[in-house]
UniProtKB/TrEMBL annotation:
This is Sulfotransferase. The keyword Transferase applies. Residues 68-336 form the Sulfotransferase domain. Belongs to the sulfotransferase 1 family. Gene3D superfamilies: P-loop containing nucleotide triphosphate hydrolases (3.40.50.300). Pfam families: Sulfotransfer_1. InterPro entries: P-loop_NTPase (IPR027417), Sulfotransferase_dom (IPR000863). Keywords: Transferase. It comes from the Eukaryota. The gene is LOC102719623. GO terms for molecular function: sulfotransferase activity.
Amino acid sequence: MAPTTTGVDRRDGGGGVLDGMAMAELLPSLPLETRCPPFPLRLYGGYWLPEWVLPGLEAVHARFDPRPSDVLLASFPKSGTTWLKALAFAVANRADHPPSGDAHPLRRSGPHDCVRFFESSFALAGEGGGDIFAASPSPRLLATHMPYSLLPERITASGSGCRIVYVCRDPKDAFISAWLFTTKNSTAHDRSVQKSASIEEVFDLFCAGRCVAGPQWQHVLEYWSESQRRPEKVLFLRYEEMLREPARSVRRLAEFLGCPFAEEEEAAGAVDAIVELCSIGQLRRVPANKTGATELGINKESFFRKGAAGDWSNHISLEMAARLDAVVEDALRGSGFSFAAAGGDSE
């Protein structure tokens, strides 16, 4: 895809390039979806993205200066993002912040305070200025919900040095987690979005790919495909496997981040200490995660619900589940990827 004069790919609703047009000019022309809470969405580059985030995406392309040591934690919303942030932060910073220490940052603040989303941070910062992460010391951990195809080439290029850790989750659980999260935070969000939509109506939209960062399966497939092509660049994790074997996932993270556990650390129980520090039970007990709201007005305690797999069965019918499974299976046919960890997946 050819770069524009500002260094940002300008894409219309169908994924075409719109050269020389600033995001503010482009936004009104993009397809609009207002029925799917919590935000009005615009179709950009083949994905339904929050309208308010798109200027931040433009700023990331124009102003963010990645470093070879940067690690990007990527995910579709409500797919294990908070847990991944906690685990990666604890693993990467364990030399300065031993996981068993009482003063550990994760015992005093939330994972979203320790690892920030770069597109929303730029969006909230507004226009003007340079790279808002320029003063952050290396190595930096940043997060994103952006699809792989919309990341700046300065990050995805083979020679950039930047690495990406992606976590995926069963679509049914991702949907339910997002629905409950949005319902709990409905008063905090833009009132131009319809509030009376039922779970069935929002489910219909999800099946059509009309949700934040949707279609979900397409989002996952992009990162999985890149992890197959360049495993040294993209580490692909499955939320369900992380739940079953958290210690193994912590070791994989450490290896990928270039800071594997030494024998002495293993013997001292460092891996188990990180698993415990980052468990949903422990994070839920942190006072900073019990009260207050984020700068988007989201209740902090709503980030820590069950953290379980298969909770969808308590909220949607088997018929609805079968319908979504069929949509996903049809969309992924021939790709080699399966949410059931079949079809040629090496995980």
